[in-house]
Amino acid sequence: MTAHDHRHSLYTVDQVRALDRRAIDELGIPAYELMQRAAAAALVCLRQHWPQARRIAVYCGPGNNGGDGFLLGALAREAGIHAEVFALGESRGDDAIRARREFEHGGGTVVAWNEAVALPPVDVHVDALYGTGLQRALAPEVAALVGRVHATGAPVLALDVPSGVNANTGDVPGEAVQVQVTVTFIAPKRGLYTGLAPGYVGTVQLESLGLPETLWQGARADAELMRPQTLPPRPRQSHKGNNGHVLAIGGDHGTAGAIRLCSEAALRGGAGLVSVATRAEHLIALNSARPELMAHEVNGPQALEALLPRATVLAVGPGLGQGAWGHALWLTALDAQLPLVLDADGLNLLAREPRGFSGPVVMTPHPGEAARLLGCDTRTIAIDRYAAVRELAKRYGAVVVLKGAGSLVADPQGRVAVCRWGNPGMATGGMGDLLTGIVAALMAQGCDAWQAATLGVSLHARAGDLAAKHGGERGLIATDLLEPLRLLLNGRDA
Ligand SMILES: NC(=O)C1=CN([C@@H]2O[C@H](COP(=O)(O)OP(=O)(O)OC[C@H]3O[C@@H](n4cnc5c(N)ncnc54)[C@H](OP(=O)(O)O)[C@@H]3O)[C@@H](O)[C@H]2O)[C@@H](O)CC1
Ligand SMILES: Nc1ncnc2c1ncn2[C@@H]1O[C@H](COP(=O)(O)OP(=O)(O)O)[C@@H](O)[C@H]1O
Ligand SMILES: [K+]
């Protein structure tokens, strides 16, 4: 990530405030002018998305987000759009107060919101309630307004942040406005891209308000958005020994599916060879379903040790269980001094028996596994996914993928990458097993832990989107991702 690539850099709310301050102090642009520019950009965005809009309602909160709303109301009126403006609370701060006066001096009337007020019929609602200053869950009367806005069925444009969404973390502590478009100002706030936020933000459109690139140069960003990537073409003389050997370990009694999905994804992820260490009862099914896999009966540590010398990467956990068999294989795998991908019971065992690693490791917890690893509950993970993934990476000395909408990848030094792809069709059993196999395959082909995790997460999520594009989200199953995965891996997704 380069410091000035601000469209792929994500910022904390404090970092955005520091950028605002620099624009004001170093570039000499008054805060009120920034507010005017924000309102002008919002009007352009409104017209771009809803060119037919003739009537809008703008709901203004007490802070500067509300100030943006009053100025948008003023500009919309000048542009011949009927704008009804509602205030929730008295404006606080010079700029917001001035913005409200500007709207009123232009002939606009501000209606003080209360529950008896009828919502006007409008083409678009504009949410200017709270932006980066949101401190807590929306109050009940504001939540009631949000419910009524939703009930109209008309689209909503959010200014900067949908109200109720924590722009710093992506958490939504109570109700929040669900919008079609979020026009966000100056810099992308990291909270818009992960956790609960993706369910509210709609399309996020960044407006830099005419500020020069120099503003972002040298400015600290907190995280980076993943970009579409692939691997370079294989050398023509490549042979299977050049492309790594994944050994997938798991599949206790009754959980053959998980290890099959993981190992099949490793094949489709381009590993030269894929072996499976599993229970004897799964061998025939595995071999007949996917003859390219080399399935081995492994009763205990000795049988596993015999397979280790040929492996380049171990994928440990899918269907492993936490019984004596799984635990013994897990211990052997962790002592093997080979690169590891740890998932599912591989992580649950680690939560029970914390330990360090000697080689490169990628851990792929979903929020439930992350909570077990950190000894907290899943709500604590959701409150700040950025903090959780960083803490996991630091505590375990590994690259960690925190899965779920807006998957995050962190390394122990605190670097974080954010995945903006993926869809709720992927909320079905087996999707995580695929990710484990893909990441292992990429490590086997020479990617380091960070590259394998970020590329693996992005390929997996984009494959999910491509599969959903063709057949829809509902009913999407893990194996549907394998063919699109292969296309994406070879840069053939067009
Ligand atoms: N600075 C700049 O250069 C630019 C800033 N810009 C705009 O300013 C926005 C940030 O403005 P902001 O800092 O005034 O915060 P904002 O989001 O309006 O809310 C703060 C107010 O809300 C209140 N409050 C908070 N949560 C609450 C809750 N749940 N329920 C009830 N009240 C709650 C809080 O009260 P308090 O909690 O302090 O009592 C305070 O009064 C930013 O998102 C962007 O739109 C643009 O114009 C571009 C240039
Ligand atoms: N709503 C969603 N949006 C984006 N990605 C999702 C969503 N739901 C699930 N996924 C992805 O699907 C995978 C599910 O993994 P996991 O929960 O481990 O499933 P399983 O254990 O059934 O294999 C993760 O990579 C996750 O990020
Ligand atoms: K808002």
TrEMBL record:
EC number: 4.2.1.136, 5.1.99.6
Residue numbers binding AMP: K403, G404, A405, G406, S407, G432
Domain named YjeF C-terminal: residues: 223-492
Domain YjeF N-terminal: residue ranges: 16-217
Cofactor(s), by name: Mg(2+); K(+)
Keyword terms of this UniProt record: ATP-binding, Isomerase, Lyase, Metal-binding, Multifunctional enzyme, NAD, NADP, Nucleotide-binding, Potassium
Cofactor notes: Binds 1 potassium ion per subunit.
InterPro entries: CARKD, Nnr, Ribokinase-like, YjeF_N_dom, YjeF_N_dom_sf
List of residues binding (6S)-NADPHX: 64-68, 131-137, 160, 258, 319, 366, 433
Positions of K(+) binding: N65, D127, S163
Organism domain of life: Bacteria
Role, per record: Catalyzes the epimerization of the S- and R-forms of NAD(P)HX, a damaged form of NAD(P)H that is a result of enzymatic or heat-dependent hydration. This is a prerequisite for the S-specific NAD(P)H-hydrate dehydratase to allow the repair of both epimers of NAD(P)HX. Catalyzes the dehydration of the S-form of NAD(P)HX at the expense of ADP, which is converted to AMP. Together with NAD(P)HX epimerase, which catalyzes the epimerization of the S- and R-forms, the enzyme allows the repair of both epimers of NAD(P)HX, a damaged form of NAD(P)H that is a result of enzymatic or heat-dependent hydration.
Protein name per its UniProtKB record: Bifunctional NAD(P)H-hydrate repair enzyme
Organism: Dyella kyungheensis
The encoding gene: nnrE
